[in-house]
Design a protein that fits this description.
Layout: H1 15-18, H2 25-30, H3 37-52, H4 60-88, H5 106-124, H6 129-136, H7 139-148, H8 155-163, H9 166-175, H10 180-202, H11 205-211, H12 216-220, H13 224-246, H14 250-253, H15 257-269, H16 275-283, H17 285-302
Helix pairs in contact: 3-4, 3-9, 3-10, 3-17, 4-5, 4-7, 6-9, 7-8, 8-10, 9-10, 10-13, 10-16, 13-15, 15-17
Length: 304
């Protein structure tokens, strides 16, 4: 019989990870280097906030915050796998993850988390002190996230709180102070995350039920597409309110129309019984984030 630790998933035999030296592949898999969608979804709220603040010559912030999003998303994935390694062994989709299959030791995984956090520290010192303090405050909710699916049906809401934190950081990174628009962006992004992560959770409903993991997809059941649509509507409304705070002009709100139509299409196509479609719609939020970014950039630059 082949030991679990000897089984290598297909994702480590092809693509970018497959091109790496074999000893590095499990660590790259831990960081989800073959799935950059998470980095983009963490990055977009940061970029929206900088853009809506008008940039003010700090174009370098877009690159620094992208590096920070990559490092902290990667660290979060490793940390999540450390916490969930026993649960992951019971789920078909996750049983071959490096920690669940014991191809990487827990101390080695913690070392990787530390190295990634050092990259995050380099990004942190590029920010104004107000933004840096707000960014540091995210560490507590980040640490609590993996435990939420054990105690609430809505872990997606907690993920939204964490994945949207960059909206609170970008504005003060430009202006040096806090204001209402980034708070509205944050709440809107939380609703967006709950919507797209409910789509993501649809693919795991059966396995989650077997191991007792809770999710919004399980809680909503057949009404999941309706719930996703409602979350997206709240997100667009709050983003529009943030824009109105910066430039109270109906024409400025029109900049959000492409993103709103994209989200409406997602909600109309969603099927609570089609995991493959749900994953496709989830991934399309990378495009949605880019559309919202363009809207915020146009409004932010025009309002200066």
């Amino acid at each position: 019989m082949t030991a679990t630790s000897d089984i290598v998933p297909d994702s480590e035999r092809r693509g970018f990870i497959g091109a790496l030296p074999p000893p590095l592949r499990p660590y790259a898999s831990l960081m989800r280097l073959d799935r950059p969608i998470g980095t983009w979804l963490l990055y977009w709220p940061c970029a929206w906030s900088v853009a809506l603040a008008g940039v003010d010559g700090r174009w370098d912030l877009f690159l620094w915050l992208l590096l920070g999003a990559f490092a902290m998303r990667s660290a979060g994935c490793v940390y999540n796998d450390i916490v969930d390694r026993d649960l992951d062994r019971q789920v078909e989709r996750t049983r071959l993850r490096p920690l669940a299959s014991r191809r990487v030791s827990v101390p080695s995984a913690w070392l990787l988390v530390g190295l990634l956090c050092l990259i995050g520290l380099v990004v942190l010192i590029q920010l104004k002190w107000t933004a840096a303090l707000i960014a540091l405050a995210s560490l507590a909710p980040v640490a609590a996230y993996p435990f939420m699916k054990r105690i609430t049906w809505w872990p997606q809401a907690w993920l939204g709180l964490v994945f949207s934190w960059g909206a609170l950081v970008g504005w003060p990174a430009v202006t040096g102070s806090f204001a209402l628009p980034p708070l509205l962006l944050w709440f809107g992004s939380i609703a967006w995350v709950v919507g797209y992560d409910t789509l993501y959770a649809i693919q795991d409903k059966e396995d989650d039920a077997l191991v007792g993991v809770r999710s919004s997809a399980r809680r909503l059941g057949r009404k999941a597409p309706l719930g996703v649509g409602l979350c997206y509507a709240i997100a667009v409304a709050l983003w529009g309110t943030a824009i109105w705070q910066v430039r109270p002009d109906w024409l400025a709100l029109a900049a959000l129309l492409p993103a709103a139509l994209h989200l409406l299409t997602q909600a109309l196509r969603a099927d609570p019984d089609d995991g493959e479609l749900a994953l496709e719609l989830f991934r399309s939020n990378r495009t949605c984030g880019a559309l919202v970014f363009l809207a915020m950039l146009v409004v932010g630059l025009s309002a200066r």
